[in-house]
Amino acid sequence: MTRHFLRDDDLTQAEQSEILDLAIELKKDRFQVKPLAGPQTVAVIFDKSSTRTRVSFAVGIADLGGVPLIISTANSQLGGKETATDTARVLERQVAAIVWRTFAQSGLEEMAAGTTVPVVNGLSDDFHPCQLLADLLTIREHRGALAGSTVTFLGDGASNMAQSYLLAGAVAGMHVRIASPGAFAPTASVVDDARRVAAVNGGSIELFTDPVAAVTGADVVVTDTWVSMGKEDEKSKRLRDLGAYRVDAELMGTASPGALFLHCLPADRGFEVTADVIDGPQSAVWDEAENRLHAQKALLVWLLARA
Ligand code: CP
Ligand code: NVA
């Protein structure tokens, strides 16, 4: 049965942990396994801009002995004349897996339902699960065990990053706190799903409006752009409404000693985070960006072994 990775809770805690263990092994020697030797091709499709996702999948697929086929929907039939299902049925006869960065989560679900090869969410409006594998890997490297640790995400609680923290943190057995204004709270059904998963894995989910209460004692502090791709027309409102959730040195000072700062990038210094925090000693954002490579390679190895 083909496995897909469309949202963070598509993996059990044991499966998530197995992929992170494999990522740590692959990081020691990038060229040790070649499941795509042949070479086989992996299609990586972008409806939105990208630097990290594009580079890390292209390099990772090459490391695994394969060929990355980077497709921009701006010059393909997908999204224009052709449905996700029809595109998937064409691609599955020629590629080993499909990675897709898109808008609606429902498009990914449609594509996965219509194909026999693994489909990976390279970011949707709702979730960014590949980024979360990289973030969890970075937290493990810098802070040790995930289960029982506390992570606070500040800013747009309905963003793909916040919602992936809810699900991936719940799978990992973490205590996940989201701090946002009420109008930017996570989607209720995602919170419900995260609470159910957290209960199974010994974690917890808490929503805050007070940023200081949310960060106090946290082991990891995370933020993301206040203006996600597709939200550009709301920019001035978002900068105004989210201003109290900026991560600065004073707010970091309320976290636990040695707390880690993460940001998936790209960052707007001076908006969601001050330069002294993102460029300071508690920040692990460059390790986090590198870990996209190792985590996604492990994910592909894992998915291809089940395809
Ligand atoms: N973090 C992340 O996904 O970056 P890109 O948008 O550059 O891929
Ligand atoms: N939330 C951001 C993440 C970018 C990697 C966005 O969707 O634009």
From TrEMBL:
- State a single Gene Ontology molecular function: amino acid binding
Q: Which residues form the Aspartate/ornithine carbamoyltransferase carbamoyl-P binding domain?
A: 3-141
Per the record, its GO cellular-component terms are: cytoplasm
Task: Tell me the residue numbers annotated for binding L-ornithine.
Answer: N160, D224, S228, M229
Matching entries from InterPro entries are given as:
Asp/Orn_carbamoyltranf_P-bd, Asp/Orn_carbamoylTrfase, Asp/Orn_carbamoylTrfase_sf, Asp_carbamoyltransf_Asp/Orn-bd, Orn/put_carbamltrans, OTCase_ArgI
- Record's Gene3D superfamilies? Aspartate/ornithine carbamoyltransferase
Q: Which UniProt keywords apply?
A: Cytoplasm, Transferase
Q: Which family does it belong to?
A: Belongs to the aspartate/ornithine carbamoyltransferase superfamily. OTCase family.
- Record-given protein name: Ornithine carbamoyltransferase
> Which organism's genome codes for this protein?
Marisediminicola antarctica
